[in-house]
Amino acid sequence: MSRPLRTGLTAFSVAWGVFMLILLLAAGDGLEGSMRWNDRDDAINSIWISAGGNE
Questions:
Q1: pTM given for the model
Q2: pLDDT in tens, the chain (55 residues)
Q3: Whole-angstrom distance between the N-terminal and C-terminal Cα of the chain?
Q4: What are phi and psi of 2, to 5 degrees?
C-alpha cells in the first residue's frame, strides 16, 4: 500500500456509509411499524375531518 492514510479514510467512509444506510432503513421500518400500531383500531373506510386551519 503506497497510501495508507487514503486507504484508511476510504475504508472508514465506506463503513460509515453502510452504517448510516442500515440506521436509516431501521428508523424507517420503526416509524412504519409505529404508525401501523397507532392506526390498528381505525376502520379502513374512516374519514378524519378537522376544523383547524393550516397554522
A1: 0.63
A2: 589 999 999 999 999 999 999 999 999 999 999 988 887 887 778 887 878 766 5
A3: 59
A4: -90, -20
- What is the four-CA torsion angle of 49, 51, 54, 55, rounded to 10 degrees? -130
Q: In this predicted structure, what is the pLDDT of residue 41? A: 80
Distance CA 5, CA 9 (A): 6
The cell for 50 is 378537522
Residue with cell 378524519: 48
The grid coordinates listed for 43 are: 376502520
